[in-house]
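Tutorial, part two.
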Amino acid sequence: MAHLEPLPAGEPGALLHLEELESALVESLTTQMIDLVGVDSPADEDPLVAMVGIDPAAAPSEDPALLRLLPDAYPDDDDASSEFRRFTERDLRSAKVRHASRVRESVAARETPIAIAGEDVTAWLGFLNDARLVIGTRLGVTEENHEELAELPDDDPRAALFGVYGWLTYLQETLVQTLMGHP
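Running the prediction step on this input gives:
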């Protein structure tokens, strides 16, 4: 099973040991995240608009998982929320794609263990958080039903997905503890 340890000689960061199946799972999740949040620019887009990252067509998603990743900044003010989304959503999506891409690259390199340091820390923590939010939203995880979901029978299709959610939670928590000096 995956485990983390501090980098040698007190350097900030961690070494992540993944089994082959876990590496394949992370690669698959990163690809799915990129597909979910990636944005295609229209061919006729104003170059200035593209350069500054404004998205005139930005609107709240009808997909609850995507809405969880890109929530309304002002839930009680549709106009302010729309304006904020127009100026920030493209950058937020791009950052999420960068995080997932960086994680995928580090896993695809097949170096064991994976050194997580510098900008990779932000990429890994961002990706793990985003993946957990998407899966948790898809499963409808709440504090009230967490135990119920944890006890799903193996033949329930949600059980495997909840297992992935739990594993991502373990990775995120262990990475944070390792970075804080509490392996």
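The chain has one domain: 3-21+42-179. In part three we will examine how such features are distributed along the chain.
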